[in-house]
Write a structure and sequence with these properties.
Number of strands: 17
Protein name: DUF1254 domain-containing protein
Distance between the termini: 68 Å
Largest sheet: 5 strands, antiparallel
Organism: Streptomyces aquilus
CATH topology of one domain: Immunoglobulin-like
InterPro entries: DUF1214 (IPR010621), DUF1214_C_sf (IPR037049), DUF1254 (IPR010679), DUF1254_sf (IPR037050)
CATH superfamily of one domain: Domain of unknown function DUF1254
CATH class of one domain: Mainly Beta
Helix content: 25-40%
């Protein structure tokens, strides 16, 4: 018997029960640890080149990505990023945006990657505005002039903004907009006295290997200090408490009996196997990302989205899919073995309110591919595309330059080896979301 078990109404924490709880806790907590993996170098470790400057400030990427950029996997050149992190323990922040004549979105996510809300072209429109971002239990007065309030469920919040880039010549205009994304503590926004500062946590160092060991729960226990329990997750959190993961930041794997430690390790292995199996059937991003209300308690689907595309946008904002194999069953497709084509039939181009693109990445790194025409993606904004006689569009995916000049216009250069292609549809039509529009095959070009 243990006091923790009695508190949650468990007469005995058996080895098998510990294994099940560990598996459930790993699936649920995976998003928190993957989020911390990104937050740590950006907001905590000032010696890391990815450091954005700490909490409460933006770091913008304004130049298009090239194969030389390796700190972001599966990058896109449609919408360069603006990163920021907020610590809401002391007081809220105000996020101010300028009037913008282009697509942009500033999505704010909780510690478990659930979206708090979105500021941008689709949701709040093109006008300038000031938006209050408040943490759990904040009940202060909303200042006059605030256009909207976003209420987070965790004290640590991340922002991965995207702003439309028309091409290399558009960089100065893009940068001018990004520089007017402002973050200010509420006291600075209102010109009032700042609250007493909160204590700086003793941040644990991120270690990749912790994802697969009992130390996973040490880090999860630390992070739960910034995540007050939610009513809908009370029973899950109680079960974690039975393992000693209380949110105190004091979980100690060494205190586990050998048989319990082994059970936890088996539970982690079970969870990782479940995630790998779930990923096999994950064809597109329709249900991967969203608000807490949209995702509910489907933590396995959330984990799939985190694993395949951390911080992906919800399907209503941007729909993601791609080609992981060709029509001959080659998985992944390999440009050393075959040339490929993608044929969009007349009237079957991706229906987008804003724009669409298809970006190719070399595997296994999932990075951009150096090529002689410096083209890493192709889409509805690619100049000079040549449509088929019937109005359709054929893209040529191959490592060598096509001999036909018309095909060069539609050439997506592939690496000399395995690759994958990701398609992004910004502002997808309802036909994309309900599945009545589907991707054509990636076909081996005979």
């Amino acid at each position: 018997m243990c006091a923790l078990c009695e508190e949650v109404g468990v007469s005995e924490l058996t080895v098998e029960r510990a294994r099940r709880i560990a598996a459930e806790g790993w699936i649920w907590g995976f998003a928190l640890l993957e989020n911390f993996r990104t937050m740590y170098p950006q907001a905590v470790d000032s010696d890391d080149p990815r450091y954005v400057g700490g909490f409460g400030r933006f770091r913008h990427y304004s130049e298009p990505f090239t194969p030389a950029n390796t700190d972001v996997v599966t990058p896109n050149n449609d919408t360069p990023y603006s990163w920021a992190w907020l610590d809401l323990r002391a007081e809220p922040y105000v996020l101010s945006v300028p009037a913008a004549d282009r697509y942009y979105v500033l999505p704010l996510h909780d510690l478990d990657t659930s979206y708090v809300g979105y500021i941008g072209a689709r949701t709040t429109g093109p006008e300038a505005g000031d938006y209050l971002v408040a943490g759990p239990r904040w009940d202060g007065a909303v200042p006059a002039g605030i256009a909207g309030v976003l209420r987070a469920d965790t004290f640590l919040v991340g922002i991965l903004g995207r702003t439309y880039l028309a091409g290399p010549d558009d960089v100065p205009a893009l940068r001018a907009i990004q520089e007017r994304y402002l973050l200010r503590p509420l006291s600075k926004f209102t010109g009032t006295a700042a609250p007493h500062p909160v204590d700086e946590p003793v941040w644990p160092v991120w270690r990749e290997e912790d994802l697969g060991t009992v130390e996973f729960f040490t880090l999860l226990d630390f992070l739960l200090q910034f995540f007050p329990g939610l009513d809908g997750e009370r029973e899950l959190r109680d079960r974690l408490t039975a393992l000693g993961v209380t949110g105190s930041g004091e979980f100690e794997p060494a205190a586990l009996k050998p048989e319990m430690r082994a059970a936890v390790e088996q539970g982690i292995a079970d969870a990782r196997a479940r995630l790998e199996e779930a990923k096999k059937d994950a064809a597109d991003s329709t249900h991967w990302f969203g608000t807490r209300a949209e995702q509910g308690d489907d933590y396995l689907t959330r984990a799939v989205g985190v694993d395949k595309g951390l911080y992906g946008l919800p399907a209503a904002e941007a729909w993601y899919a791609g080609w992981a194999e060709d029509d001959q069953g080659n998985r992944p497709p390999n440009a050393s073995a075959h040339d490929h084509v993608i044929r969009f039939a007349p009237g079957r181009l991706p229906p987008a309110r804003y724009f669409w693109s298809a970006t190719i990445y070399r595997l296994p790194e999932r990075l951009l591919v150096a090529n002689e025409i410096d083209r890493y993606s192709i889409g509805d904004r690619t100049p000079g595309l040549v449509h088929d006689d019937d109005g359709g569009l054929t893209l040529y995916v191959r490592k060598d330059r096509p001999a036909d000049p018309k095909q060069v216009a539609n050439w997506l250069p592939a690496p000399d080896g395995p690759f994958t292609i990701a398609i992004r549809v910004y502002g997808p039509a309802s036909s994309v979301l309900d599945g009545s529009w589907t991707l054509p095959a990636l076909s081996v070009d005979a």
